[in-house]
Design a protein that fits this description.
This protein has 20 helices and ten strands. By secondary structure, it is of the alpha+beta class. The protein has four domains: 141 residues, Orthogonal Bundle (Arc Repressor Mutant, subunit A); 103 residues, Orthogonal Bundle (Arc Repressor Mutant, subunit A), CATH 1.10.10; 71 residues, no CATH class; 77 residues, no CATH class. The strands form three sheets. The chain has a four-stranded antiparallel beta sheet, with helices on one face. Strand 4 and strand 5 form a beta hairpin. Helix 2 crosses helix 3, helix 2 crosses helix 4 and helix 16 crosses helix 19. The N terminus is likely disordered. This is Replication initiation protein.
Length: 429
């Protein structure tokens, strides 16, 4: 039975090295989830996190969900199967509460999920939602990083190591616990450490070090002549930090984003509003709310202003004095200019989003093509591609990320279109 373990520390302030070491609880997610199912679980939690303990259910556009996870957006059957698997997956916790009393509980990972009119609606049980609503658990869910992984074992190892990045080590795990975390317990083959090391540990470590923002190093401890425990030393990956690509198109650098965060709006909601409505519109509503004086809930009022398109001339604010025709004409001209600029910005954003989707789809094709070639062919393909790269930066990024190198995406796609044009012709059709 596979388990994903999340630590739930007793926190009395900012996370510190000492408090992180005091692990008093764990949530175990049972069931041998596939890579895509594990990614789906993470994306759903990320989408729901802001209202995890306040909303009875959560929604996300099904096509967007499929794109973020890596499904073909038209493959509804696979999405249904994965949602069914999550609803059948058991989460179990055994922890101390704030008074030091032991608490054990069990819940389905999703209490329900449904697809209707292109929208996925789902929910967590209230008890599990309370346990998952932990900033340290949320920090594990990095959709941008998880896209780089091509194996479930690699992603599972990353998730179980990342939460210890502040302490620099996972601490010692028995091999029994480690096999459960990797989802290979119950297999006689992996009872042998030789097999476990060759097929699980080494490939997973290599993928974490290549694809994520941390570098890990396994260490083992023996009981007699047999390996009995394993731990992983952890440090940040400077190469990943250097090559990190902002999936949010620089939204976090916009003044309006910083203003929203200053008002207490969450990171995800701030980026969602800017993406959906444009920075000028959101800034206009920020200015409107600022002009209303003290309000009971600035975030709630701002949400209403954005969704209801509040303006000074509408209910809830002072109406503007009548303006003369000449001034009115100038205002209309200004609004037209703003509308045209917003339309151009929206079109540019949609074009960038379409380009990202095309790139991701083409890289998925590349991944499939690579998987069909034997090891000798794969090595030859890599050497041939690297010989065509002119920049050392490009070559280093390719060494780090292989055929998923975002920095070399255009060159990678062109290279494989030259080798296997029919595969891409079918996709374009």
């Amino acid at each position: 039975m596979a388990e994903r373990s999340f630590d739930d520390d007793r926190l009395t302030g900012a996370l510190t090295r000492e408090t992180v070491k005091k692990n008093v609880a764990a949530i175990h997610i049972s069931g041998k989830l596939t890579l895509l199912q594990r990614k789906l679980s993470n994306v759903l939690l990320l989408n729901a996190y802001d209202t995890l303990t306040t909303a009875s259910s959560h929604t996300i556009d099904a096509r967007t969900l499929a794109m973020m996870v890596g499904y073909n957006s038209n493959d509804v059957d696979s999405l249904r199967a994965s949602l069914r698997a999550l609803a059948e997956t058991v989460a179990e916790w055994d922890m101390l509460d704030e008074q030091g009393h032991q608490e054990w509980g069990v819940s389905a990972l999703l209490s329900f999920a449904k697809l209707k009119n292109g929208v996925c609606e789902y929910a967590y049980s209230p008890a599990l939602a309370q346990k998952l609503h932990d900033p340290k658990i949320y920090a594990l869910i990095n959709v941008k990083i998880q896209r780089n992984f091509s194996s479930g074992h690699g992603l599972a190892l990353y998730e179980n190591c990342y939460r210890f990045v502040r302490t620099g080590s996972t601490g010692w795990w028995s091999l029994e616990i480690f096999r459960k975390l990797m989802g290979v317990d119950g297999s006689a083959y992996y009872e042998s450490f030789k097999h476990l090391n060759a097929k699980i540990i080494k490939p997973a470590v290599a993928e974490v070090n290549k694809s994520s923002d941390i570098i890990i190093e396994p260490q083992t401890r023996k009981k007699g002549r047999a390996v009995s425990e394993i731990r992983f030393l952890i440090r940040e990956n400077p190469q990943m930090a250097m090559f990190q690509i902002d999936d949010s198109d620089g939204l976090r650098n916009l003044p309006v984003y910083k203003a929203l965060r200053g008002q207490g709006v969450s990171d995800r909601l701030a980026r969602q509003w800017i993406t959906e409505h444009g920075p000028d519109y959101v800034q206009e509503k920020l200015n409107y709310v600022a002009g209303q004086g003290d309000v009971k809930s600035s975030v709630g009022y701002l949400r209403a202003a954005i969704m209801g398109d509040y303006s000074p001339s509408e209910g809830g604010g002072a109406r503007q004095a009548p303006v003369d025709p000449e001034t009115q004409a100038r205002l209309e001209e200004k609004r037209a200019e703003q509308a045209a600029a917003q339309a151009a910005e929206d079109a540019a954003f949609q074009a960038r989003a379409a380009a990202r989707r095309d790139r991701a789809r083409h890289l998925d094709i590349v991944e499939t093509l690579v998987s069909r070639r034997n090891p000798t062919q794969r090595d030859a393909d890599k050497r041939l591609f690297q010989s065509r790269l002119e920049s050392e930066l490009d070559r280093e990024h390719f060494r780090q990320h292989g055929w998923r190198s975002a920095l070399n995406a255009a060159s990678i796609i062109a290279f494989w279109q030259e080798l296997e044009p029919d595969a891409f012709a079918e996709d374009e059709g």
